[in-house]
Amino acid sequence: GFDGGDSAAGGGPGGDSGVTKVPVATAGPCYTPCEMIFPFIVLLFFMTLLVAITQMPVLMVVLRSVAEEEKAFALGIQFVIFRLFGYIPSPIVFGSVIDSTCLVWKQTCEGSQGGRCLMYDIELFRYK
């Protein structure tokens, strides 16, 4: 919530004295309407469904296309490929995108940036 006082303190011409009203923080969450939650949930559902539907056919293709004595090796190679191209780079890429929206970094005693972000550009974060 905001404090209900006037923004003009000195009563200059037009009621503007150059004093800016500062909002007052109150306990509790800020309730803002979110119009994008339903499209996000629908998109997330279909993406998860697509991944779930394709996992078993990919496994069957791998198992049916190699000889009996090479099936364990083929599954191991498939596991390595998934890790190499999916599970390892994705946190690095997402972390880089998130870090690119940082406005204020925590500085150490030596003056160098590092470690954690203190404030993000929410608008830029939303669209990246």
Account of the 3D structure:
The protein is elongated and about 85 Å long. It has helices at residues 37-65, 71-87, 89-99, 122-127; strands spanning 102-107, 113-120. A two-stranded antiparallel sheet has the order 1-2. The protein is mainly alpha-helical and 128 residues long. The chain contains 4 helices and 2 strands; from the N terminus they run H-H-H-E-E-H.
How are the secondary structure elements laid out?
Elements (H helix, E strand, L loop, with lengths): L36 H29 L5 H17 L1 H11 L2 E6 L5 E8 L1 H6 L1
Antiparallel strand pairs: 1-2
Gist of the model:
With 128 residues, the chain is mainly alpha-helical. Helices cover 49% and strands 11% of the residues. The longest helix is centred in the middle third of the chain and has 29 residues, at 37-65.
